[in-house]
Amino acid sequence: MNLYTLINELRLPCSIPDCDISGVTENIDNVTKGSIFVAVKGKSFDGNCYTERALKQGAVCVISEEESENPLVIKTEDTRLTLAQLCSAFYSHPERKLKITGITGTNGKTTVCEYLSHILEESGKKCGVIGTLGVKYGEYYSQTGYTTPSPEILYKVLDLFVKSGCEHCVMEVSSQALEQKRTAPIDFTLAVFTNIGTDHLDRHGTFENYLSAKASLFSQSEKALLNADDINFERMAEKCRGQVFTFSAKDRYADFAAKDIRYPDSGISYVFFDKKNIIPVSAELTGEFSVYNTLAAFSAAEILGVVPSLFSGIVKKLPEIKGRMQKISKDNLSVFIDFAHTPEALQNVLSSLRKNTDNKLFCVFGCGGNRDKGKRPLMGEIAARYSDSVIITSDNPRNENPCEISEDILKGIKNKRNVIVENDRKRAIEIALSAMKSGDCLLVAGKGHEEYQIIGDKKHIFSDEMTVKSILGLI
Q1: β-strand pairing of 140-142 with 73-75
Q2: pLDDT, tens only, 18-66
Q3: Under CATH, which number does the domain 3-90 receive?
Q4: How far apart are CA 284 and CA 268, in angstroms?
Q5: Angle CA(183)–CA(289)–CA(359) in degrees, nearest 5?
Q6: What pTM was computed for the model?
């Protein structure tokens, strides 16, 4: 790939002699000879501070929103958009060679993404996955550390999907990624909306901004699949530029519906309805949220061309998803590891476990530091309402004092008689497990699949799953 091919496609002014380009990056540490460095200005950093360093490291040019007398600095109006466009062009627009489904919402993105990719694969359609749990296609797996990775990684991954023979890509699309225009060059085949709750207000400032960021996905998709039961359904529908499909589990008029919903022991069952088919669905999954997650995945799959008659068989093969209601059992004790880190998610999980737990229900959870403080007392109230015993602990405290985070959570709990604060997360899990008796259930919430704990600016190795298994003597 040469410089003029990239620059001319974006119609940027350039007086630099043409040359080969080795890569495009916004990360100064990734700049090597032949790179294009895009000086993105964020909330806590400014890429323009590294212009001279980038050129010394061998960058061919620097793309910036700022005026400069340096002929190697090329002006653009929007560095984030330009970054995504350059990365897409550098890899010869791989997004145009795939059928890409984007899934957005507060809760359920990861599960629906994993279910949908599994359904596509089971129906014979080769599919790559990009999401919170990493990048996967075939036997390949890699962790990116982001729900939706940076353009530098995203379009490289899409290129790998194309070269590996993938027909489809299913990806989680975060509100931050949409706001930062990482996916701007992608014309999605289908965009899926799961739900909207309380999250990321620390980043977006207001719920309105958060909602608008999510809704923007539907302006760049050929088709949309929306949860008709969500209170913000119409706001999403307003942004849709193409054909709109809906799904519902509450008897609302919809293109796809779950009816005759039942919750037998350790499972869910319902009848999947569309315009032409009536398909029985039964799975060993927990709660109403599992009805919505499977319904969304099946609905999306049908839109993408999967024959609905396959669903009854496929649902019995759905994979267990790491950190998403992941069950660990020993001696009639049930422990669930879940990523629930919003009030809505915590209520969904605990209310479901409450219905299916005859004995005591324990809950270990905390809230992340340097994140939306408003949800802390809400989550405290929910935990205390559904649980027989609550152990408040540290999540990812980051640069906040864990004790202060716990105090914020406690503000939402009126009756603190069965509440313990233990900010050492391992010790908190030990306390819960040691108090449990046969038939009891424990939810360890908030971190799910994560294998680290962020304390200060450092990541320390920590896994809820491994901690539970170690204490129970399963490893």
Answers
A1: unpaired
A2: 999 999 999 999 999 999 999 999 888 899 999 999 999 999 999 999 9
A3: 3.40.1390.10
A4: 6
A5: 140
A6: 0.92
